[in-house]
What does this fold into?
Amino acid sequence: MREDSLLKFISYLNCFALVCVLFIAGAATSLFLPPPDPPQPNTAKSTAILKEQVDQTSISIWQPPDSTKIENTPEGDLIRYGRELVAHTALYLGPKGKLMAISNGMNCQNCHLKAGKKPFGNSYAAVAATYPKKRARSGQIESVERRVNDCIERSLNGRRLDENSTEMRAFVAYIKWVGSEVPKGVYPNGAGLLELPLLNRPADAAKGMKVFEVHCMSCHGLGGEGFREGNSPEWKYPPLSHDNSFNVGAGLFRLSRFAAYVKSNMPYGASYDNPTLTDEEAWDVAAYINSLPRPGKDLSQDWPDISTKPFDHPFGPYADTFSEQQHKFGPFGPIKDLQKKN
Ligand code: HEC
Ligand code: HEC
It folds into this structure.
């Protein structure tokens, strides 16, 4: 090689190395970046909408019982063990679980925030008061045990727990304790999720990707695959998609559940009375996340009566003529109106 072309080559190499260094530094800072600041109050408009919703649905919001009052009895011990299992499921039942490996490594608490005690954080407030109850998905009367196993099979993409095991008895004792101050038959304000008003357009996954990049990616990872510290069996930021996430039979795979969960709880630190995202952003990010790959599930036994499928169930057959696409992304208004009419 001639000397000047050699020099040129070397300077190319230098440029390349510099780009590499910049890229690695960029990736490293984003990995080790602390979680973003607590969410800022939302725009006046969406706060106003939210207030209206909350005022409509609630006079007072349910609060969980005082855990320091759990008694020092064998029953109290079972409740405390149940709380531990909800908060740290992966340590006991995950792929490297101390007891058995029957679930995907997420914790119940990843979705049932503060171990099911956060109002509208997918709370367990209504369970003690409303179970056993008939559920349309199975067409059967379901006990709390059965409902817990549903989440293990779907949200934790796992295998059912023996209903007579100590662990199942502990889950149930704890979940019933959370709702123990709610009168029988009452569905308190703060139970489950706060419903979001529907959009009058389909939710938009492309817009949702932008929301994800701004508000979610720093914790949940580039492709929503989650983040662990070192070899920890628990996620620091749980996966939203791909192999380690909930499967297509899970509640969060329905757009209205995902959007409602996110609006009142994410980015982490948001709450029903201090959300970060607008309603549109919550629906759009739901469309984006639920378009990413995730585990499948045999759903052939679900919805024995298809006329009871919720408006946003993403798989046919349906009792109406709306497409799977519309049942997955909306607009849901026309579907709901028809369901009301029938
Ligand atoms: C990936 C998220 C996710 C995980 C993880 C998860 N769940 Fe759920 N769970 C949900 C959703 C979504 C619902 C339904 C909410 C709705 O339809 O309003 C639900 C509902 C429930 C209910 C019924 C609540 C009610 O008021 O009817 C119980 C009980 C429950 N889960 C227990 C558990 C237990 C125990 C675990 C861990 C073994 C668990 N869940 C893990 C998302 C999750
Ligand atoms: C500051 C970090 C952070 C940010 C930003 C964040 N999350 Fe989360 N997210 C978490 C943590 C931590 C949990 C688990 C909570 C727990 O275990 O107590 C979680 C749980 C979840 C869950 C339920 C569990 C699962 O993996 O399915 C969903 C869904 C979710 N986040 C969606 C989002 C979306 C969408 C955004 C953006 C709008 C977002 N998150 C932004 C930290 C974050």
